[in-house]
Amino acid sequence: MTARGKLRLGINIDHVATLRNARGSAWPDPLRAALLAQAAGADGITAHLREDRRHIRDADMAAIKAAIDIPLNFECGATDEMQAICLAITPHAVCLVPERREERTTEGGLDVAGDEARLAAYIAPLRDAGARVSMFISHDPRQIEASARIGAAVVELHTGLYSDLHAEGRLEEAEAELEALRRGAAHADALGLEVHAGHGLTFDNVAAVAAIPQVMELNIGHFLIGEAVFMGLGPAIEEMRRRMDAVRAG
Ligand code: PXP
């Protein structure tokens, strides 16, 4: 199968807020980053409101939703508090992720198969409010099938392990993980799920994920916010886009 058209790029601006919060000041402002990303060609803005508010805060989410013209992808844990905030903000998309306080970043995918009945009930009002609900999962077929059964519109496949293996130079293992991501993407697509991917993507590892034909959107944050220190946020986003588009065009 050939790749299907242009791949969307969602920019995760959480770590602009991390930098701001490190000094307890008002800058750098994540809203400014969202607007800059939009101007640089981002197709969406992703932000994760964590239970501990370690980066993005409630007021950031509301301000970003009000100011941007592109879709907002609201990432959160599947808690009652987050469901109420999502229903008040009505983002374009809600991406449910596992969340543990002690983790540095989102480790592993959501266990949809192990929490199926609760998650089916949890996402129903979000779907009724018009949000495209996405499950951030591993490529495990059981998680993909459970996501389809509960009525999620989208699965976002966790690329963190692939990214780590690639960065450590364990290229055979990275290729095996990529192959599992490819199989997962094809399986999800066959079940009628839209497929997204993200976590740990960089200029050096993005091409192989962008080449998976069923993947419609990548969500990328930490690397690009880091790269913005050196080359500026707009140019970093443009370079990522160029690398994604080169794969799809080829
Ligand atoms: N997608 C999801 C669901 C995530 O939780 C994250 C990290 O917050 C990302 C994408 C972006 O990952 P990174 O910041 O490593 O690019």
What do these coordinates show?
With 250 residues, the protein is of the alpha/beta class. It has a single domain (8-101, 113-249), classed as Aldolase class I (TIM Barrel, Alpha-Beta Barrel), CATH 3.20.20. It is 49% helix and 16% strand. It has 11 helices and 8 strands. The protein has an 8-stranded parallel β-barrel with strand order 1-2-3-4-5-6-7-8, surrounded by 6 helices. Helix 5 links the parallel strand 4 and strand 5 (132-137). The longest helix is centred in the C-terminal third of the chain and has 20 residues, at 171-190. It is globular. The model has no long low-confidence stretch (mean pLDDT 95). The chain binds pyridoxine-5'-phosphate. Pyridoxine-5'-phosphate is lined by residues 12, 14, 48, 75, 95, 97, 105-106, 136, 156, 198-201, 219-223.
